[in-house]
Specification:
Carbamate kinase; binds magnesium ion; about 475 residues; alpha/beta; eight-stranded mixed beta sheet; 2 domains; 14 helices; six-stranded antiparallel beta sheet; binds adenosine-5'-diphosphate; binds aspartic acid; globular
Length: about 475
């Protein structure tokens, strides 16, 4: 089998975890599989890089760049010394030269007090630029031939949208041309989370974007399966950090998994399913802490089981926008004006709800995009198209997901009756036409309780025949 395996941050968090990952890759290689690897930064490193980039661009006195570089070095060198003692000298040189690079760019950002989206992307890609060398060395130490490629060298060409770049169709042939010749003889370790523009400028694919790197590469090399290795047993009936009795779902469809990730299930990046779905490549989500568990299979089939609802998610990083008093009710073109204004400001609208009077429209956007949304909409208030815009940051979006919801009457009734009984007020409701999900908005403080109530209502903690 040709496999693309992606390992997340906790799975490569220290030497011991990297040893475990090298073991998993080695075992698969020994079984005769062709394996290509995509790797994330060690857990927490991307957050630190983002913090450091912001700090150096805004601080008044010189920030502590050297101790920061030293702590990054310490963490990666310790793992390298543990897992690849015979390669410490050679690989250590690579790590040091990368760190020198990072030190220079952070110093330049401090001197200029200017952090452009371009330089920010370059800085935050360094987590993967370091972890990949350690994993590759650990494989070589075990006698497995391996080479490191950054996202650009691997052929991932993207749009220039720094921080949220999308892979361009031209990536496919490039990745194929670069990676396929390698996998017969070696195990390529590709840095996740990054690509580059046509001009070779580094871009990043959005937080948790290594999942997306994995499916971009997996699809391009026509992998038989893409395995996303993480720190939980698979896609679960709810976030296990919120719901103690959440269970693993053995199989979900691409569409269900997309809805789940879009509405907050961090286990997969929202765009990650798209490349796999286009080529109908199954995606497995598996646990590096429990590798014998079969995990979750994400594939084309929509397996509807008697319980209908499969999973409940919550997105807490959202804000509500109310567009009130829309004038010219019923006249075509008003919605277009509103959504064009948002699109021109690059605001992504996650949920929409419009009353039948057409006088009000409510929207959900990422919290980080609220200011941009309000700015864009102020223009149409000034033009007299709407009376006022209000917003609320203290909200959460909850989504109930399951393919069988289409054509099963009563699901919405059950959801909202349960909310009513629990005394949870619903601020907004939206149901996509695919009917794979029903989503609604509640006050932030009610969000987690809403998930628990629904998890209980649909008895998701109980086993179900698949
Ligand atoms: P990685 O570093 O491997 O990419 P992430 O932290 O990005 O891992 O994603 C895994 C985490 O996603 C889990 O630890 C879990 O807390 C969270 N999560 C949220 N919703 C779900 C869900 N429905 N199923 C499984 N995990 C979920
Ligand atoms: N390291 C990146 C992040 O923390 C990408 C990833 O882990 O998938 O967002
Ligand atoms: Mg992730």
């Amino acid at each position: 089998m040709r496999l693309l395996m992606k390992f997340g941050g906790t799975s490569v968090g220290d030497g011991e975890r990297i040893r475990n990952v090298a073991g998993i890759i080695g075992e698969s290689h020994r079984q005769g599989n062709e394996v290509a690897v995509v790797v994330s930064a060690m857990s927490g490193v991307t957050d630190q890089l983002i913090g450091m980039a912001t700090e150096v661009s805004t601080c008044i006195t010189k920030p502590l760049i050297d101790p920061y570089i030293a702590s990054l070095r310490e963490r990666h060198m310790r793992a390298l010394e543990q897992e690849a003692p015979s390669l410490v000298h050679d690989v250590g040189e690579h790590i040091d030269s990368r760190l020198e690079n990072l030190r220079n760019i952070l110093t330049a950002i401090y001197n200029l007090r200017e952090l452009t989206p371009r330089s920010r992307d370059y800085v935050i890609s360094f987590g993967e630029r370091l972890s990949s060398y350690v994993l590759c060395a650990a494989l070589r130490e075990r006698g497995l031939p391996s080479v490191v490629l950054d996202g650009c060298e691997a052929g991932i060409v993207t749009t220039p949208q720094h921080g949220e770049a999308l892979a361009l169709p031209s990536s496919e042939a490039r990745i194929k041309g670069r990676i396929v010749p390698l996998i017969g003889t070696t195990i390529p370790v590709i840095m996740g989370y990054m690509g580059c523009t046509e001009e070779g400028i580094t871009t990043t694919l959005g937080r948790s974007g290594s999942d997306y790197s994995a499916t971009i590469v997996g699809a391009a090399i026509d992998a038989d399966e893409i395995w996303i290795w993480t720190d939980v047993d698979g896609v679960m009936t709810a976030d296990p950090r919120i719901i103690g009795d959440a269970r693993v779902i053995p199989s979900v469809s691409y569409l269900e998994a997309m809805e789940l990730s879009f509405f907050g299930a961090k286990v997969l990046h929202p765009r990650a399913l798209d490349p796999a779905m286009r080529k109908n490549i199954p995606v497995r989500v598996k646990n590096t802490f429990n590798p014998s568990h079969p995990g979750t299979l994400v594939h084309r089939d929509e397996r509807v089981h008697s319980r209908v609802v499969k999973s409940i998610t919550i997105h807490q990083n959202v804000a509500l926008v109310n567009i009130n008093g829309i004038r010219l009710i019923g006249r075509p073109g008003v919605a277009k004006t509103i959504f064009s204004a948002l699109a021109e400001s690059d605001v992504n609208v996650m949920m929409i709800s419009q009353g039948s009077s057409e006088a009000n429209i409510s929207l959900i956007v990422e919290k980080a995009q609220l200011d941009a949304a309000l700015h864009a909409l102020n223009g149409i208030v000034k033009d007299g198209i709407v009376r006022e815009i209000t917003s609320d940051r203290e909200v959460a979006a909850v989504a109930v997901v399951g393919a069988g919801m289409a054509g099963t009457p009563g699901i919405s009734g059950k959801i909202f009756t349960a909310m009513g009984k629990a005394g949870i007020n619903i601020i907004m409701i939206s149901q996509g036409s695919s009917e794979v999900n029903v989503s609604f908005v509640v006050k932030a403080q009610d969000g987690k309780r809403a998930v628990q109530v629904l998890h209980d209502e649909f008895r998701l903690a109980e086993a179900v025949d698949e």
